[in-house]
Amino acid sequence: MKIMVTVKQVPDTSGRVAVNEDGTLNRASMQTIINPDDLNAVEEALSLKDKYGCKVVAFTMGPMQAEPMLRELLAMGVDETVLISAREFGGSDTYATSQIIAAAIDTYGIDDDDIIIAGRQAIDGDTAQVGPQIAEKLHLPQVTYAGEVKKDGNVLTVKRMLEDGYMTVKVSTPCMITCIKELNDPRYMSFRGTIECWEKPLTIMDYNALKDHELIDATTIGLKGSPTNIYKSFAPPVKEPGMILEGSGKETTDQLAHILTGKHII
Amino acid sequence: MAYNSADIAAFKNVWVFCEQRQGKMMPTTFELISEGRKLADELGVELCGILLGDDVDGIAAELGGYGADRVYVYNSPLLKNYTTDAYTKVIVDAVEEFKPEIMIYGASHIGRDLAPRCAARLHTGLCADCTHLDVDLNGYVEFLRTGSNVDVDNTNFETKMFDVNTNLKMTRPAFGGHLMATIVCPRFRPAMATVRPGVMKRRPFDEEGVKKVEIVHPDFELTEADVQTEVVEVVKAAKKLVDLIGAEYIVSVGRGIAKDVEGGIALAEELADVLGGVVGASRAVVDAGWMTADHQVGQTGKTVHPKVYIALGISGAIQHKAGMQESEYIIAVNKDENAPMFEIANYGIVGDLFKVVPLLIQSIKDAKAEA
Ligand SMILES: Cc1cc2nc3c(=O)[nH]c(=O)nc-3n(C[C@H](O)[C@H](O)[C@H](O)COP(=O)(O)OP(=O)(O)OC[C@H]3O[C@@H](n4cnc5c(N)ncnc54)[C@H](O)[C@@H]3O)c2cc1C
Ligand SMILES: Cc1cc2nc3c(=O)[nH]c(=O)nc-3n(C[C@H](O)[C@H](O)[C@H](O)COP(=O)(O)OP(=O)(O)OC[C@H]3O[C@@H](n4cnc5c(N)ncnc54)[C@H](O)[C@@H]3O)c2cc1C
Question: In angstroms, how far is CA A106 from the centroid of its own chain?
Fold first, then answer.
């Protein structure tokens, strides 16, 4: 039994974000972080490891600069990391990304009692599509929006959150779970972990390592193999500056109320 | 490799996945049918709904009232509760049989589970969580004129890559709302999108459409062996959830109520009552446990576009704005004159909400009495 988690390095979009003139993102202006939902995925994997003593392997697809992030994961307690990196993989949409990550996971090997855990959504692309699409490419069942996971032998009972409640779903391994932040509280790196992380394996899977896999085909990876393309990108509109009313007493609230009724807004 | 999805000319019509839960249509479905009607008209094709469930014929005809020409209904006990496997199989088989050129789903917790799986199996593209859809290029350009920073008169919209007049242009926020992207899927069909609930406007209901809509029951295959997961139970949240998405008036509170949480919420409720609206909240309020998660507005909460959105003691973080900046009028009350919320507010009052709101309630009552 092992747990495989998919982890993405993302720009921190919670602070101020600069958009270039041409509508692309000024990435240099941002710090990179581990995608927040993926920390929950890692935590879930590590707590299963605490209980069952299984191995935890993290996969990321991205540029070579993702290595420090992988060391961080190893320091949290992950046993092994795989960096999927090649020029040919660049510019992939979610379809192509999933195709490549699925090929990497399959190349690594999936056993009958394995679990794959992804975050629900990455805070940059914001699509929440990669988890389900990896599962589809690997022909595995999926349960998304996991708010609670219980394991009994090879059967997982997952509380799958809905907008208006939840569903309890049973699924057998091997399977894909995507998790939301309510699932758990991610741990920090341990002091010992920060030393041990340098001894643990960090494998790189490049184009050559994956090119013979049946999922990898020039028509399904990278910018050219992606079914979707970005036609235009732009910054959202800046609204006309509004008006700040003077004062904050009864005259001011009266003034506002009269504007609103006068314009038939209320 | 050859994919059926690449034979673009073989695909026609606009489809909407009509999500139901426990035999009740999800309100977003009506928004999608309304938007689908617009797209079908722009292409001059038919608008079809696809409805999966167990004994759901009774809720199919209503879709005609919002513009559906035809509804494909698939009934089976195996489709009673949503499962990824059963729904994906039936939809993928139906798409391969009838070949729609566009297919849209609500970006609900179910739509966002189902659509990526279908797209991956069909080998086609999927645009996530869209807030604007266009076939017609002029419509798209007009949308950009007011809805973006693009200098549309000096922009080239033509491209050799695909026909800009017939391909669906799917616009969505990414990077937490900091960037908008318009996505196309020019080489494969159907072009698929999930659409953010609450964003598309519902058309007025038309009784005639209900009489005209054609209900079809195609043959299909689905067995227990197709479904790898088991739904043990479906639990609805006990408390009646606040209907933020349908509300005309929303009064939301932020961490600014901290010094008297109950008092602050009571003031917001009273103001909402006077306006005939409901109360929302920032994530800070929900995270603090002061209000339940169904009240949350923003990137990870609900997207709302009421007529009036009143923000009380909410700073205006980008993730909060992402859920409310499309409101018709925004009013902010905040004691900090530099709060970013004022940047998007039509009207602002700088002051302590605990002092301002009681006065505002009185002023509105007075003004309404006069009007
Ligand atoms: C502005 C913009 C808009 C876009 N819109 C679309 C669109 O509508 N449709 C589309 O198909 N593509 C779109 N893309 C491309 C898409 O963002 C990339 O394919 C991206 O690599 C994966 O999507 P995501 O970030 O949305 O991940 P999500 O699907 O949100 O990620 C879910 C989970 O999958 C795993 N995961 C995702 N990426 C990786 C990775 N590289 N390595 C390891 N694990 C990973 C993580 O566990 C993550 O939590 C867009 C890109 C941009 C820049
Ligand atoms: C990935 C991600 C997703 C997120 N999603 C969401 C989301 O969906 N929705 C959301 O809201 N947030 C979201 N956030 C959080 C967001 O970044 C902010 O932290 C949050 O919106 C702040 O809430 P607030 O404005 O209530 O609190 P604060 O930022 O603390 O603002 C409180 C405001 O109240 C004012 N104030 C204080 N006292 C008074 C008083 N007596 N009278 C008047 N004004 C007063 C202050 O001046 C201040 O402006 C998300 C963050 C991340 C990273």
Answer: 19
- For the segment B174-218, what is each residue's pLDDT rounded down to a tens digit? 887 788 999 999 999 999 999 998 789 889 999 999 999 999 999
CB crowding A200-218: b at 16 or more within 10 Å, else e:
bebeebebebbeebebbee
Q: How many CB atoms lie within 10 A of CB B284?
A: 20
- Domain(s) labelled CATH 3.40.50.1220 in chain B stretch across 249-370
The answer, for B105 touching chain A at a CB cutoff of 8 Å, is no
CB pairs under 8 A between A and B: 276
Q: A141 vs B84: CB contact, 8 Å cut-off?
A: yes
Q: Which domains does chain A have, with CATH numbers?
A: 2-225 (3.40.50.620)
8 Å CB contact between B99 and B77? no
The one-letter code for the residue type at B356 is V
Instruction: State the CATH architecture for B8-226.
Output: 3-Layer(aba) Sandwich (3.40)
Q: Could you give the residue range(s) of every CATH 3.40.50.620 domain in chain B?
A: 8-226
- Kind plus residue range of the DSSP H or E element containing A49: helix A36-52
Q: Any idea which architecture B249-370 has in CATH? A: 3-Layer(aba) Sandwich (3.40)
pTM of the model: 0.82
Q: Which two tokens stand for residue B262?
A: 């109950």
Residue A13 in contact with ligand 2 by CB distance below 6 A: no
pLDDT tens-place string over residues B23-74 = 999 999 999 999 999 999 999 999 999 999 999 999 999 999 999 999 999 9
